[in-house]
Amino acid sequence: MKRIVLCFLFLIISCLPPATRAADQARPLTAAEVTRIVADRTFMMIYTSEKRENHHIYFARDGRYTILFPGGKVRSSDTWKVETNDNFCLRRALRSGGDTRYITKCGPVTLAGPNALNLHDDKGQLIYTLQFLGNGNLLDQFVK
What we know:
It contains 2 helices and 9 strands, in the order ααβββββββββ. By secondary structure, it is α+β, with helices and mostly antiparallel strands. It has one domain (29-142): Lipocalin (Beta Barrel), CATH 2.40.128. The chain starts with a helix and ends in a 9-residue tail after the last strand.
């Protein structure tokens, strides 16, 4: 009987670490964690919507980001920040006929594995996955 109980306890304990890791991945990251992970790094920005193509994005330490659009020729830059409520925000300028409007999208960030982050909107819906490509600005490697 003791053997059965010990085997049962061993099975339960061996299942705990993966469950804990899954819970950690679902936990929103703090502002300090997000900043440490994204600053001065390049990622592949993978859209959850199948209508959009993936981009390469570099997050500078000074709060600026640069996106290299598909095709590897067009770049766009604007700002990123992590708010005091731990929401990650990307600002984007929309220019049209001499007018400029700014759109800022904010939301929590969660881990998506050892080398990826999930970016959510303000309602908690997944909008992007950032797949880590390397330290520093690697965008020139993807220019065509």
